[in-house]
Design goal:
Blueprint: H1 25-28, E1 38-41, H2 48-56, E2 62-67, H3 70-81, H4 83-94, H5 99-106, H6 113-126, H7 155-164, E3 169-172, E4 187-191, H8 214-229, E5 233-239, H9 242-247, E6 252-260, E7 270-278
Parallel strand pairs: 1-2, 1-4, 2-3, 4-5
Antiparallel strand pairs: 5-7, 6-7
Helix pairs in contact: 3-4, 3-6, 3-7, 4-6
Length: 280
């Protein structure tokens, strides 16, 4: 499962993603279990943890990656199954990119699966702050970003990611479905849910039409605990706040330092404490 030598780049996220974990991998590395056979990531997002684990585990592992966001999973499936067509579509966008074209593409409603995937990747690479945000109807509504020459199509990276995803199972489903599959100490589950808001004005749970409220956080804790009782290795990222520390108090809580990269006020961007909860 881990043959990346055919390409000059190693697999890594091909999307910009709010709360992406690329910059935190070095702090996460000591917390990952050294051995497992099956990996589950029910809040896929940018996939930074999966791509890192793929590089590190030369013996390979079975991976099931899922999310409730159909557009997101469609992108991964297109990278997995038809990366050449996807690259062709992205090159088409690259050659036509300007402000008028951006808003024309943003207003599009339908299309073939590869075209839909290319549209979202294009918007992701050219929108403000690389922010994926939807309105209540599931429509992408982020304005264009201020990029002079954005890289819309990184063909080598997409090919490397396609290779990494070849034997991966990709599913559109709620996080609690992991209970149907992860049942033993050979299983490792990583949860990266929408973070619990640190204030009443936080928008951490509003990046898509799939809101994640306090009841969902409790439900996730219950799934975490049920998996832990089975002996499954479980790891979760979330805000460092009293609520999260309280509901996970029976487990190991680790602090990490993250850069807050999405904020409308530049003076409010900087380092912030987050927690990583582990069952082991």
């Amino acid at each position: 499962m881990n043959e990346t030598t055919a390409f000059s780049v190693l697999p890594r996220p091909f999307l910009k993603w709010a709360g992406g974990k690329t910059q935190l991998i070095s702090q996460y590395q000591p917390l990952f279990p050294p051995k497992f056979k099956n990996y589950y990531e029910p809040f896929l997002g940018g996939g930074a943890v999966f791509f890192y684990l793929f590089q590190e585990h030369s013996s390979g592992f079975k991976a099931v990656l899922s999310d409730v966001n159909e557009e997101l999973i469609n992108m991964y499936r297109c990278v997995q199954k038809d990366v050449k067509s996807l690259i062709k579509e992205l090159e088409f966008h690259q050659n036509r990119h300007n402000s008028e074209y951006y808003y024309q593409v943003r207003a599009q409603k339908s299309g073939e699966l590869v075209k839909k995937a290319a549209r979202i990747i294009y918007l992701n690479k050219t929108c403000f702050n690389g922010l994926y945000r939807e309105n209540s109807k599931g429509e992408f509504n982020v304005p264009i970003g201020r990029y002079k020459n954005p890289t819309i199509c990184n063909a080598e990276l997409l090919q490397a990611d396609s290779q990494a995803l070849q034997s991966v199972q990709l599913e559109v489903r709620d996080f609690d479905k992991v209970l149907d599959e992860a049942k033993t100490e050979q299983d490792f589950v990583y949860f990266d849910p929408p973070y619990y808001p640190l204030s009443n004005t936080s928008k951490f749970t509003s990046y898509s039409r799939y809101n994640f409220n306090e009841e969902d956080q409790i439900r996730l804790r219950d799934v975490f605990a049920q998996l832990a009782r089975r002996g499954v290795k479980v790891m979760l990222s979330n805000s460092d706040c009293p609520f999260i520390r309280e509901i996970y108090q029976e487990f190991r809580i680790h602090e990490v330092s993250a850069a807050r990269s999405i904020n409308s006020k530049g003076t409010h961007r900087g380092k912030i404490s987050e927690v990583v909860v582990t069952s082991y």
